[in-house]
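ABC transporter permease
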Amino acid sequence: MRKFLEKIYIILKIMFNLFSISNICKLNSLNLLRQMQTIIPACLPATMITSCFMSLVFSLQIVKEFLYLNASDLVGSVLTIIFLRELSPVLTSIILIGKIGSYFTAELATMKITEQIDVLYILNINPISYLVIPRILAFIIILPLLNCLSLLTSLSSSSFICFILYNIHPKMFFLSVLTSLSYQDLIKSCLKTIIFALFISTISCVWGLTSQGGAKGVGESITKSVVISLLSVLCLDFILSYYMFNSLDSVLKSL
């Protein structure tokens, strides 16, 4: 119970610092850029490779069914909806959990175990503002960009495999893509990744800052943060898809 309350307290402190205008103005831009430089090289290749092969698999499974129904002109539309609304945000988030979320937890847990966090307090430096907020903001900035890149990679790979195996011309494919691609779905997808990024980065940092028990505690914190982040993304994906974004449709249509 004590550990749970400690995590809740740190989460509340993080949210206060994150939404405080004065703390954002004091943010060290170099520290933010350093975190972004950590995320991009680590996740860009994995995101592109995963998106490429997942799109190839889905294309192999879906396209032949549409050809059987003589509906090849709908292939691009269906794949666009699948990738844009669900697969790209979730897959990109899972990659960042494994690559960056675990790294953030390990880094902060090691600093906690070796008492480097206590040194920051002695130097009158707020660890939340100095260590956590740049990581969360970097996550929030990078994840939507990687999601868009994942979508482009998926559609390009699908177009390629459709042309090579099923003789569906790329022009027909992308015309079908444009019929179902809307700014509303793009906004939904970006909102999903922003919310995912907030939860993933916060969970990773909190479990790192509350780590105890030496090297064993660091390993346990990493495992717990990864598992909880994965479960959070899957649960949030259902909630956002089923509830929040259904309500958003009516708002966007009224604009």
